[in-house]
Write a structure and sequence with these properties.
This protein is an all-alpha fold. It folds into 2 domains: about 100 residues, Orthogonal Bundle (Arc Repressor Mutant, subunit A); about 160 residues, GntR ligand-binding domain-like (Four Helix Bundle (Hemerythrin (Met), subunit A), Up-down Bundle). About 70% of the residues lie in helices and about 5% in strands. The chain is built from 11 helices and 2 strands, in the order αααααββαααααα. Strands 1-2 form a two-stranded antiparallel sheet. β1 and β2 form a beta hairpin. α6 runs parallel beside α10. It starts with 8 loop residues before the first helix and ends in a 10-residue tail after the last helix.
Amino acid sequence: MTRRPGANLCTIVYKLCYADNFDDILQRMNGKGHSRSRPRDKEVLMRDQAYAYIQKKILCGDLQAGKAVSELNIAKELGSSRTPVREALGQLVAEGLLEQIPNRGAVVVQFGRQDIIDLFELREALEAYAVEKVARGRTHPANLDRLQSLADELLALKDEIERSGRETLNSSQRQQFVRSDMGFHALMIQMANNPRISKVVKSTRLLIRFFATRSLPKATELEWIYQHHSEVVQAVAAQDPERAVRVIRKHIQTSLKDRLDEFDHWQRESLLEDHLPVFVGDEIG
């Protein structure tokens, strides 16, 4: 797949990491308020609401890669004028999450297979460094307990799936999965005490959530995710940096393989649909 000009991965990561409002981006995605306390007039508030609303539509799949974002439709859905929506679209274009295409307007960027690989390679390099740094020192027992608790939540989700007879998580369970999984990695990065690495990893995972969203995890996937997380905790507790790095690399590489398998499947399905002949049924009468 050919990359679109707007999908410059390094530029997007850089802008997200060093934007003054990066923490606001994450807070808005989680439905939280603004981190800045300066007074905001109604117009700015509407722009921020439009910004968060469009992000969530991309994240939920309502606005898929390559799809144009209708300024008019968004304004109607929010019950606002088009001005704050236009400003929000401009901000998302500047951050690289949308791109401006002649005669189409703002379009959700399309990431290719190599972009997914780039994201995971960046994440692997930084998380391996952070985990090694954490494992070389003494970790407070409370942090170890919290890490293991987050890992155990994934095992509890696996048990819920098996008891229900379903193959995948429902909507609320998926939200719990995201909180537990991202919470584990975020806490581990935080323990490395390197704010710049933390920002880059956050931005990378943000992009992965936007443009390489995985399907709902199955019980078997939750099992290996839980096992990997638990092994990392054990290695950190034992101050064994080599083992910690080995496990976290295996963990991220396994996740990358799953994402690439999904991407390849999606690409095959898309090509098949593009080349299917259209049959018209015989008219009755």
